[in-house]
Amino acid sequence: MTPADRVLRDALRHQAVRATLLALVTTADAAAVLLLPAALGHTLDLLLAGEPATAALTGAAALLAALFLLDAVETVLTGTTTAHATARLRTRLIGHLLAVGPAGAARFSRGDLVTRATALAAQSGTAPGAVAALLASCALPLGGLTALVLIDWRLAGTFLLGVPLLALVLRAFTRRTGDTVERYLRLQGEIAGRFTETLAGARTIAAAGTLRRERGRVLAALPELSREGHRLWRVQGRSNAQAAVLVPLLQTAVVATGGLLLVAGELSVGTLLAATRYAALAAGIGVLTGRLAALVRARRSGARLAEVHAVPVAPHGTKPLPPGPGRLELRRVSAVRGGRTVLDGVDLTVPGGTTVAVVGRSGSGKSELARLAGKLTEPDHGEVLLDGVPLSEADPAALRRAVGYAFERPALLGGTLAGTIGFGPLPPPDPERITRAARAACADTFVRTLPHGYDTPCADVPLSGGEIQRLGLARAFTHRGRLLILDDATSSLDTATERQVTEALLNGDRPGTRLLVAHRAATAARADLVAWLEAGRLRALAPHARLWQEPDYRAVFAAGPEPADA
Amino acid sequence: MPEPDPGRTADAPPPRRGLFAAGARRLLRRPGALLALTGWSLLEAAHTFLLGLAVARALDEGFLRDRPATGLAWLGVGAVGIVAGAFGTGRVHRAVGALTEPLRDLLVERVVGGGLHAAVTPGRTAGAAGAGAVSRLTHQVEIARDSFAGLLMAGRAFVFTAAAALAGLAALHPLLLLVVLPPLLCGLGVFAASLRPLARRQRRFLDADEALAAELDATLGGLRDVVACGAQERVRAEAAERVTDERRAASALARWGATRAVALGLGGRLPVLLLLLLTPWLLDRGVSAGALAGALTYLLQSLAPALESLVHGLGGAGARLAVVLTRLRGGPTDDDGPVRHRPPPPSAADAALELRAVSFSYGRGAAPVLDAVDLTVPRGGHLAVVGPSGIGKSTLAQLLAGLLRPTSGHLAAHGPVTLLPQEAYVFTGTVRENLGYLCPRPVPDAVLLGAADAVGCAELLTRLGGPDAVLDPAGLSAGERQLIALARAHASPDPVLVLDEATCHLDPAAEARAELAFRARPGTVVVIAHRISSARRADLVLVLDGTRAVAGRPAEVAAGSALFRDLCGGWDAAGGSQPAGPLGDADGVHAVARAGLPGDR
pTM score, two decimals? Predict the structure, then answer.
């Protein structure tokens, strides 16, 4: 059993009752569909012959009523089974992603994950319903053909001879449609590309007053797109016309054979009519292949979901964290990422209540260390301890209460600006704490210039890199844990603002340990100690002033880029 | 994210009526295509009409009378009908295309027009408007196109097939209509009645689906932050809620799908039963055996399938189209953008820019971004604006360029002002088009190349291949794009230029060269400074600190503004030119934050 099947089987098992019911209903429906032409034909023959037909009529009526009911139940059941199975697949996928966390999910892009959880889950969700209806889907064309054979083998022969003959004739008319679709998509992409380009230059366009010109430029390819669109319709019309010929001509051929048998006295009018209908059902093999293709698609989507489920969940324990000052210890910690050793046997102790700056050239492993320190990722070797408890044994909720983070590019979650700053476990912190944190992070001023202040939805405000960082810092400042980790979280702030934020961070009323990944010498200078990383190893742990004597250390800051003050 | 529309509650019917009226008007405006559609549909319907008739006649006049040749001949007539009808099917597609493609064109024009209009409308929210516009352009426009074509196709197919089948039944025997028509109309009635509730549920489903996608995009994109904030449980619960919403909406939609089965049962299956029940009665009234067989052929092979595709095609597609079209209600497609405010000329003869107590805030009740700024820049002057990020420097630039109007105070400018924003706009087009972008009339290449040379862009142009080379914006670095934008501004005839961090991606030497080039150019320059070195090159400095604006010569401002000194010190330290001292002291300047800085209030 493949991983995809395991994922889909779970969904099927979860929907076992509905799926079983659906299988019964669709099978019964197929049986009724197959019986109906024979019943109708028989009844018609009796009526035409003037014989008593009450029983036959009742039978036909019962079949029609059953079909009506079964159809209704099938429609509802298929829809609800798919809806429930999709929901099950989604909940499991989201749950797993939250459990594996950012390190586990990193191998997938954001858009990819969203596609998997929405479109692909929806497609996989059709699998239980499709599996349940599979027997019925096979039964219809096979039953139709069997019925033809049972009525008269010559009718079945006509049908079977006609299929390849017609298919050959039609193939001669088939033309390639691929390039037209491709051209259409390319032109559409061209317009979208220019549109994106123009949107990015909106401020220039606004300032230059060139909106009309730009609109013309974006839409320049529209006439050509339109031409390709018309061509697509022509191509589609051709192939649909071919499909419109096939089944009716097959039926006509069966009627012709049946008519000759009728003349020979070997067939009744009612049976001829039934044979016509069975020919149509037998031609429905296309429907079956369509269903099978859908099932294959559902399985392929299931395989994409299974890839996510294959990511293992990092182990965690249940130990509570004892009260402590926030002493952070890294013991011989190594991390290998993408085949490269990012951290190599790092031993580092950050005494509780102190501030340690982590510096080093880009690629020296600073951010990885920051991630490891708060268990956003796992070390390949070694151990990380907080107040004596290994992080891998700590209770996850207790750990999150103890460790707060601010990032270079924080994701703004929580809806409004206030929600963003107070984002975390429910219930949210009170507004007073949020404004205080925002003030400390120098975010209060710009928030107040917005029309709805703290209640402004983040999506409605184009925020600069510096503003986003200040919101992320405010969010970290509302956290009351014993360890605060700032991973390059002030890089987009101008020096004056950064100085002020660092001041609030170091001299504010919050106790605890702070770990700062820093690019600027001024920031490192404010820390109690500097952990100097070089190529994944800890080169030194000492005050900035002492390290500054070393030319190598000064060189770490020399090549630093200017702040992108926005 | 789907905005809850305040004007419409969830239970209100979707605005279909207006939509259909607009759609009908649009169709009527293309009589040629409509005529073609009708004509080819008639040909397609001839197939349906002949099918039952051929079966009936083949039986009555051929096979049942021992005349197989006649029977086969009638079936041959039916086969000709099939081939002719298929030809009609092909042409019908072209006609549907002729009606659908103009709709797509219109939607593309609207989405582009609306997206651009929203993007260039000034204000704090500009730019956010463009988000999602590209998805609308590609994805949603195509949904609208497919849904519209599907609607047209299914609706038209049903009308013509039903008409042909009914005509065929009448031709076989008028009494047959009496048997078939009432249940068919009942089925259609049920379908029509279910359209509205079905559309409402379809809309709710699409909304739930979009809400789920938006929520997942945010949380899965920010998974690191979710875990770091310890918000997994909360996010799991919120996502589960969205998933459940979507599931409920999908289930409700499926339950309402049962109405389709009812419509099909009444309109498609009940006539068959009635026909059988009334067979003895019909036979007594002269309806032949062949006519009965023909009637059953019409019912089973034409009417029931046509009704089925109508019922399945119309319900879903109609609601989808309605939903997408309301989202695509774009903006104007032929305007010139927001009206730019032209400030009056300054009162002083030699002033280029004059600000008297200029204040600005983004909306009523919001704290002012700029508060009573006073400033005069002489003609030919060179002003640098400095201050911490987010303090209102870009707002000032937009005020100077006339893109925003002061909330209060007086602003005057000598002549038109060119604003060069931080995001350099380079578009797919020739180098010449890009450089001459701000010139109202075509300019000789020599002038453009001269401007490029002055700002230090000549080497880049040579590498790109000269004025006729076509630029690929994605192939240029941010700094290269800024160089091109700078050359463009240098070539502009406007007497006042405002550079809003337009050099932030250049290295300090390239920045200096560009700024000196603008100094040498006749006219006034305002530089929103990215580096403090810009302020040192200027004649005048304006320091914004969140509460007040201090303007003057660099040396005077340095003496009066501690923030300016603070910025100078910080910038230099970060640049690595001097060792950063220990805590709290950067090259001897008093560095403790004081009143006047943002956040102190």
Answer: 0.79
Q: Please state whether beta strands A355-359 and A529-534 pair in parallel, antiparallel, or not at all (unpaired).
A: parallel
Q: Is the pLDDT of residue B9 over 50?
A: no
State residue B164's pLDDT score: 96
CATH ID of A3-152+267-309, from 1.10.357.10, 3.30.530.20, 1.10.760.10, 1.20.1560.10: 1.20.1560.10
Q: Which residues of chain B are within 8 Å of residue A547 when distances are taken between CB atoms?
A: none
Q: Kindly report the length of chain A.
A: 566
Residues of A in contact with B366 (CB under 8 A): 448-451, 453
CATH topology of domain B351-590: Rossmann fold (3.40.50)
CATH-assigned architecture of domain B16-328: Up-down Bundle (1.20)
In B, minimum Cα distance to A526 occurs at B583
For A253-287, give one letter per residue: b (16+ CB within 10 A) or e. Answer: bbbbbbbbbbbeeebbbbbbbbbbbbbbbbbbbee
Q: pLDDT grade, residue B362 (50/70/90)?
A: confident
Touching check for B556 and chain A: CB below 8 Å? no
Which candidate in B216, B244, B309 is best for mutational testing of the A interface (most A CBs within 10 A)? B216
Q: Cβ–Cβ of B389/A493 closer than 8 Å?
A: yes
- Chain B residues within an 8 Å CB radius of A212: 334-337
Q: Measure the CA–CA gap between B453 and B451, rounded to whole angstroms.
A: 5
Per-residue pLDDT band for B592 (boundaries 50, 70, 90) equals: very low
**What b-and-e string marks burial along B82-106, b requiring 16 or more CB atoms within 10 Å of the CB?**
beebbbbbbbbbbbbbbbbbbbbbb
Q: Which of B130, B233, B301 sits opposite A202 (nearest CB)?
A: B130
Residues 6+ apart with CB under 8 A from A387: A321, A322, A323, A324, A325, A326, A327, A352, A482
Best residue of A25, A268, A413 to probe chain B, by most B CBs closer than 10 Å: A413
Please tell me the distance from the alpha carbon of residue B146 to that of residue B133, in angstroms, as a whole number.
19
Measured between alpha carbons, how far is A157 from A159 in angstroms, rounded to an integer?
Answer: 5
Hey, is the C-beta of B42 within 8 angstroms of any chain A C-beta?
A: no
Q: Which residues of A touch B371 (CB under 8 A)?
A: none
DSSP class of residue A509?
S
Q: How many CB atoms lie within 10 A of CB B116?
A: 30
- CB within 8 Å of chain A, chain B residues 357-386: 361-369
Q: Which helix (H) or strand (E) holds B543?
A: strand B540-544
- Report the amino acid identity of residue A405: Y
Q: Which of A40, A248, A269 sits opposite B59 (nearest CB)?
A: A269
**What is the maximum alpha-carbon separation in chain A?**
116
Tokens standing for residue B158:
């049903």
d(CA A166, CA A248): 11
What residue segments make up the domains of chain A, in order of their start?
Answer: 3-152+267-309, 328-558
**Greater model confidence, A39 or A113:** A39
- Residue keyed to tokens 């197939």: B47
Q: How far is CA A214 from CA A198, B116, B332, B411, B585, in A?
A: 7, 9, 14, 29, 51
Contact B250 A79 (CB under 8 A): yes
- Which sequence spans correspond to the domains of chain B? 16-328, 351-590
Beta strands in B154-301 (DSSP E): none
ipTM of the shown complex: 0.87
Considering the domain A328-558 in this protein, what is its CATH number? 3.40.50.300
Distance CA B212, CA B487 (A): 46
Interface check for B246 against chain A (CB to CB < 8 A): the answer is: yes
Where b means 16+ CB within 10 Å and e means fewer, B414-424 reads: bebbbbbbbbb
pLDDT tens-digit readout, A331-376: 999 999 878 888 999 999 999 989 999 998 877 888 899 999 999 9
* 3-class DSSP assignment, residue A517: strand
